[in-house]
Specification:
Elements (H helix, E strand, L loop, with lengths): L7 H12 L12 H11 L4 H15 L2
Length: 63
């Protein structure tokens, strides 16, 4: 299998993008992460996208 290489320009662009984001850590019980990840995938979303979507919808429902 061939190894995928990242160009210097791609790495710089990725680093710049990451720096534009805030990070929030969520801790869950051992094994729960995989269950949550599978549930998010069943909805066609990443775990991060699913969590952010739930939070946004909750905030919108309060207005």
């Amino acid at each position: 299998m061939s190894e995928l290489k990242t160009s210097v320009a791609q790495r710089r662009a990725s680093d710049k993008y990451i720096k534009s984001l805030d990070e929030i850590r969520v801790r869950v019980a051992k094994g729960e992460r995989e269950m949550l990840k599978a549930h998010a995938k069943s909805k066609g979303m990443s775990l991060n996208g699913y969590i952010c979507d739930l939070i946004r919808r909750d905030m919108e429902s309060e207005t």
